[in-house]
Write a structure and sequence with these properties.
By secondary structure, the chain is mainly α. The protein has 2 domains: 58 residues, no CATH class; 213 residues, MetI-like (MetI-like fold). The protein contains 14 helices and no strands. The radius of gyration is 23 Å and the shape is globular. It starts with a helix and ends with a helix. The C terminus is likely disordered.
Length: 279
């Protein structure tokens, strides 16, 4: 009994230490976003008070220099439609792979799984060249690219859950006159809701925070810059770096995805466990 209490106490201490470890950098970013840029390098760990306190000046400067809200709009468009495309198309693909037993579907499944382990750096230059040839250097083109890169993990997760859906439910729907498309959207997809929410959350966090793919495809010279691109643009586009404005933009950039995550976080474990156990 005493050993159990000790192990629980040690577990809580370890968890609290991890929370502090992960939250501390965010706290420093928020603190420094309210300091004058000259004080950030000299006193990075000091509280923003007295002459160090700059108010909202850093936020105003960062927004004006980078046209931040336009970048938020493009990031939101790319994130929302990429996630919708990934959820709908990969869930349909997983359903087809599981229900159609053939060598082709087995090969297709292993291709999706293999795509998960291929490093992005191996294909990024070829991909950026192909995207340029196909004129995918736009928000709509980015949705297509994210669908391709997000398909591997999403299909893998959906396949594990689809295997747990009784085939008799779908057969009953078809006997009642449902077409395959109606069966999927009226019967199968509602059952896939826990995994669909998990896939949506994971991909939304990835797409919103991704820097390398938009930078390679869209670049910094077009009007379609996303939030991570404009933040990095601010970092490297001026002779003297304005760390105050940079910190302010970092705070603004993480707010939407943090709110989204905390709103939907309970569904992550539910979906992952459901797909792992039922598959």
């Amino acid at each position: 009994m005493k050993n159990n209490k000790v192990s629980k106490v040690l577990t809580y201490i370890a968890l609290i230490a991890l929370v502090i470890l992960f939250i501390t950098p965010i706290i420093f970013v928020v603190m420094n976003s309210f300091k004058g840029k000259l004080f950030i390098s000299d006193q990075p760990f000091a509280l923003p008070k007295g002459e160090m306190f700059a108010g909202t000046a850093n936020y105003v400067t960062g927004i004006e220099k980078t046209d931040f809200f336009h970048a938020v709009g493009y990031s939101a468009f790319i994130t929302v439609f990429s996630v919708l495309a990934i959820v709908v198309f990969t869930s349909m693909t997983a359903w087809y792979i599981v229900r159609v037993k053939a060598k082709f579907t087995t090969a297709l499944y292993f291709m999706f799984v293999f795509s998960m382990i291929v490093p992005f750096q191996m294909i990024m230059f070829t991909m950026s060249k192909l995207a340029d040839i196909l004129h995918l250097n736009s928000p709509i083109g980015m949705v297509v690219l994210y669908l391709g890169f997000g398909a591997g993990l999403s299909v893998f997760m959906f396949c594990g859950f689809v295997k747990a859906i009784p085939l008799e439910i779908e057969e009953a729907a078809m006997i009642d006159g449902c077409t395959p498309i109606q069966t999927y959207f009226k019967i199968v997809f509602p059952i896939l809701k826990p995994t669909a929410i998990t896939v949506a959350i994971l991909n939304a966090m990835w797409v919103w925070n991704d820097y390398l793919l938009p930078y390679l495809v869209i670049g910094v010279s077009t009007k379609y810059k996303t939030v991570p691109v404009v933040v990095q643009y601010l970092m490297g586009s001026y002779g003297s770096k304005d760390y105050g404005a940079l910190m302010a933009l970092l705070v603004l950039a993480i707010i939407p995805i943090v709110v989204f995550y905390f709103t939907c976080q309970k569904h992550i474990i539910e979906g992952v466990v459901a797909g792992a156990v039922k598959g």
